C-alpha cells in the first residue's frame, strides 16, 4: 500500500492528473452552486456534468440562462465552446488507439486538460497514460464537485478569492512549455495568443480560441522555421 | 441537445475523421493544434475579463509560474506558488 502511494507520488503524470483534478473539483463546486441557483435541479446539473462534461460550455450555458438569456443562445454559445474538442480529437488520433467502444468512451474524456497532458509527453505510451489518467481524474473530481456544489447551494464563497482561477492558465502553461521545442512552435504559440487577444473584444466567447487555431497554418507562410525534429 | 452536440464534436474528431487517410501536411498541422489552443486559452484566462483586456494580479501569477516551470520545479510547487501569490495580492488590493 505504502509502496503504491510512494510510486504514485513519484509519478509525474499521476500527480499532474490528481492536482489538476482537485482544482477542477473546486470549480465543479462553484458550477454546482451557480447551476442550482439558476434553477436547475441537482439531477439536471449532474446529468450535465456527466454527459456534457466540458466545463467551459457548461458554465457558459448556465451563466447565459442565469443572466436572462434564452435557451437557444445558451445552446449555441456552449456548442461553440465545445467545438475545440473536435480539433483535440484530430490531434489525439495517433495517441488513442484501441477498439471502437474504447475510443467512443475516450471521446467523452477529450477536453483541454486531458489533451494538454497527452500532448506534453515525449513518448506515445506516456501520452496514452496521461490522456486516460488526466481525463478520468478530471471527470471524477468535476462530477463530485458539481454534486457537492448543488447540495450546498449558496453557502460557498467565490473560489477566485482563494486565487484558484489561476490554476487553469498555470496548468496550461506547464503543459505548453515542454511542447515549445523549436522556434517555429514558439511563434505558433505567440501568434495564437495574439489572435485570441485581438479577437476577444469583438467576437463572442469561444470564437477567439477557435480562430487562434489558424496559427497552425504558420508553416504554410513561413516554411523555413523549424517545427519538427526532422524539419518536415 | 448540448450533451449530444458536445459529444459529437469530441468523437467526430477522434473517430470519424480517422477513417480518412489524411495527407502528411495536414497530419503535421494537427500535431500543432494543442500548442495554438493552449496558448489562446492561457491568454484568455490571464489577460481577459468579460471580453475586455484586463491586466491584473493574474499576470504576476503566470510570470511566477513561468519562472518555476523554467526551473523545473515539481508540479505541485508550480501550481501552489501562483495561487498563493494571486490570493494574497487580491487581499491587499
Write structural notes for this entry.
Helices cover 70% and strands 0% of the residues of chain A. Chain A is mainly α and 232 residues long. The longest helix of chain A is centred in the middle third of the chain and has 29 residues. Chain B is mainly alpha-helical and 93 residues long. Chain B is built from 4 helices and 2 strands. In chain B, strands 1-2 form a two-stranded antiparallel sheet. The model of chain B has no long low-confidence stretch (mean pLDDT 81). Classes of the chains: A mainly alpha (232), B mainly alpha (93).
Question: What's the structural blueprint in terms of helices and strands?
Answer:
The complex is a heterodimer of chains A (232) and B (93).
Chain A: H1 2-10, H2 12-38, H3 42-51, H4 55-66, H5 71-82, H6 84-92, H7 100-108, H8 112-119, H9 124-152, H10 167-176, H11 183-199, H12 207-212, H13 218-221
Chain B: H1 2-16, H2 24-47, E1 48-49, E2 52-53, H3 57-70, H4 75-92
Antiparallel strand pairs in B: 1-2
Amino acid at each position: 500500500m505504502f509502496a503504491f502511494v510512494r510510486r504514485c507520488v513519484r509519478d509525474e503524470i499521476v500527480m499532474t492528473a490528481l492536482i489538476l483534478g482537485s482544482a477542477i473539483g473546486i470549480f465543479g463546486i462553484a458550477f454546482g452552486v451557480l447551476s442550482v441557483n439558476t434553477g436547475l435541479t441537482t439531477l439536471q446539473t449532474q446529468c450535465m456534468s456527466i454527459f456534457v462534461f466540458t466545463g467551459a460550455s457548461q458554465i457558459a450555458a448556465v451563466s447565459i440562462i442565469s443572466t436572462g438569456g434564452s435557451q437557444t443562445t445558451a445552446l449555441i454559445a456552449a456548442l461553440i465552446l465545445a467545438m475545440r474538442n473536435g480539433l483535440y480529437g484530430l490531434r489525439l488520433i495517433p495517441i488513442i488507439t484501441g477498439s471502437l467502444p474504447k475510443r467512443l468512451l475516450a471521446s467523452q474524456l477529450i477536453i483541454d486538460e486531458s489533451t494538454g497532458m497527452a500532448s506534453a509527453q515525449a513518448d506515445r505510451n506516456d501520452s496514452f497514460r496521461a490522456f486516460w489518467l488526466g481525463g478520468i481524474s478530471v471527470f471524477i473530481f468535476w462530477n463530485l464537485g458539481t454534486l457537492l456544489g448543488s447540495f450546498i447551494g449558496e453557502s460557498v464563497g467565490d473560489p477566485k478569492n482563494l486565487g484558484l482561477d489561476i490554476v487553469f492558465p498555470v496548468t496550461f502553461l506547464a503543459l505548453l512549455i515542454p511542447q515549445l521545442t523549436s522556434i517555429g512552435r514558439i511563434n505558433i504559440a505567440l501568434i495564437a495568443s495574439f489572435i485570441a487577444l485581438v479577437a476577444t473584444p469583438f467576437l463572442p466567447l469561444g470564437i477567439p480560441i477557435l480562430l487562434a487555431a489558424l496559427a497552425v497554418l504558420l508553416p504554410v507562410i513561413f516554411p523555413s522555421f523549424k517545427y519538427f525534429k526532422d524539419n518536415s | 441537445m448540448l450533451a449530444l452536440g458536445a459529444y459529437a464534436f469530441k468523437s467526430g474528431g477522434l473517430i470519424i475523421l480517422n477513417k480518412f487517410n489524411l495527407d502528411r501536411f495536414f497530419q503535421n498541422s494537427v500535431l500543432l493544434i494543442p500548442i495554438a489552443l493552449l496558448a489562446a486559452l492561457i491568454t484568455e484566462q490571464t489577460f481577459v475579463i468579460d471580453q475586455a483586456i484586463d491586466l491584473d494580479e493574474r499576470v504576476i501569477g503566470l510570470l511566477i509560474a513561468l519562472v518555476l516551470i523554467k526551473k523545473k520545479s515539481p508540479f505541485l510547487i508550480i501550481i501552489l506558488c501562483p495561487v498563493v501569490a494571486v490570493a494574497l495580492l487580491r487581499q491587499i488590493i
